[in-house]
Specification:
By secondary structure, the chain is mainly beta. The protein is 4% helix and 44% strand.
Amino acid sequence: MATSTANVVAGKPVFGGGIYHAPLGTALPTDSTTALDAAFKSYGYCDDTGVVETPTRTNTPINAWGGDMVKNLSGAYTKTFAVTFIEARNHEVLGSVYGEGNVTSTAATATTGTLYAALDKGDPLPYETFVIDTIDGLGSERIVIENGQITDIGAITYSDAAVVAYPVTITAYRGTVTGAFSAKYGDDGITTA
């Protein structure tokens, strides 16, 4: 098979942010271009490290007498996605970091800007559906995490040398519709004449 630069892909986010979330049970996309269900809400801008997908498989090597490895038993499989949200005043970001029920937002008026309050109660965060949309030239790629949960929130720094950011880790669990930890859909954007 011949090599092709068309198969080399960058993961630039779609305009308006490339990461969305919705409640479990929301209609899942099955391609990279169909509009998402209205239940999906955007997290807005993320930092320039993008999204880091990390699949991890534990293995147990079995050695024969004499030391030769003769088998490798597959064990647990996990998949995580790390991303840093940088829209620190975005209701979707705050709701996902502190728990939707712990965040309130009030629209701007003639005398105040948009008001928000986020209470950190340490509540367990919900299982949700996540979508990551990327583009490269005319091509597109979409990762669907049918059943995911924000399981880790990194250090939040307040400094005059950086923006306030929320580094999070999304853990993917096996979905009931797809049977997968995540699904990847793409369109290389190269059409026939």
